[in-house]
């Protein structure tokens, strides 16, 4: 008789603990990475159909992770610059890794095939990865395209050093005065701390 | 002679009628021209820098402001525009003001934004924000804003809330009601 009473009560308490803890987990996920956080490895499909992960880059000093998509006008306006960043920094140890966070069921312009077309048209020199589980963007806390996370390897861990915009003028490359991202990478390359760690820019919301 | 006089009178009378109806037509024409120009004026959307629109974010009166950031190319923005229009309509007798701030590219204002606003017959106030220094003005709207659109600020003297998300009508009205009360 006592067991009959205890079991349902225990079950109730356990379920409440479970529910509350899952809420707390969700909170952490929604926040995303902050400056100084360690980034977990990614393993995503590239437009050339191979899988790409941070672990593939044994000699890299870090990564320029950019969430971007096929048709957002702000992403499109940034494409040349993303290619230029890869050209400038890949050989210095900071390759660009682009990730499309959008769900093609919500945003039909962002199918894998259209990503492949985009990469070919724009001669992307960097991986353009498909976030199939639509969870990597959430892990990072990326809220828009384009959204940049600059990582530096410290004792084998990828640490976030800069978050935000490529530069101070998304719409007009010729009018850029402040190359936020390039400045940050250059500071890391000479062993300095990044002086401007977070910046903001207008972008398209992630479509999931 | 009398008959001729009568006919002449009738003729004159008829012309008078015609010209008065012409005048009426003209008045109608004038009115519709006025309406046209009113709508043209309304569709000539001001293109402003952030410092010029900054006062919209710092009003200290009894009005509750609903300020939405959008663009014609932003699908979720377009989807929720009717809800903001509905707020303008449903709250027209209350101290609530909706402002729609477009972030369309400056070279697309004439070709895309103005025709869009005209075609949809948008009643809420529309302003075009032409200020490329986003890293400076985004935090001035809200420190919480990463820069994604759609985004909305609802504020009055008592309360200020920022939403980097889209809304259903019910959600939007609910948030507004919470801030009004």
Number of β-strand runs of chain A: 10
Main sheet specs of chain A: 8 strands, mixed
**Spatial order of strands in the largest sheet of chain B:** 1-4-3-2-6-7
What distance lies between the first and last C-alpha atoms of chain B, to the nearest angstrom? Answer: 83 Å
Q: Greatest chain-chain interface? A: A-B, 24 and 23 residues
Structural class designation of chain B = alpha/beta
Helix content of chain A: 25-40%
Name the helicity range of chain B.
40-55%
Contiguous low-pLDDT stretches of chain A (5 residues minimum) are 22-29
Strand content of chain A: 15-25%
Order of helices and strands of chain A: HEEEEHEHEHEEEHE
Query: Unreliable segments of chain B (pLDDT under 50, ≥5 consecutive)?
Result: 19-25, 34-39
Using the CA coordinates, give the radius of gyration of chain A.
Answer: 20 Å
- Main β sheet profile of chain B: 6 strands, mixed
Radius of gyration of chain B: 24 Å
Strand content of chain B: 15-25%
Give me the secondary-structure category of chain A. alpha+beta
Mean model confidence by pLDDT of chain B: 86
State mean pLDDT of chain A (0 to 100 scale). Answer: 91
**What gap, in angstroms, lies between the N and C termini of chain A?**
50 Å
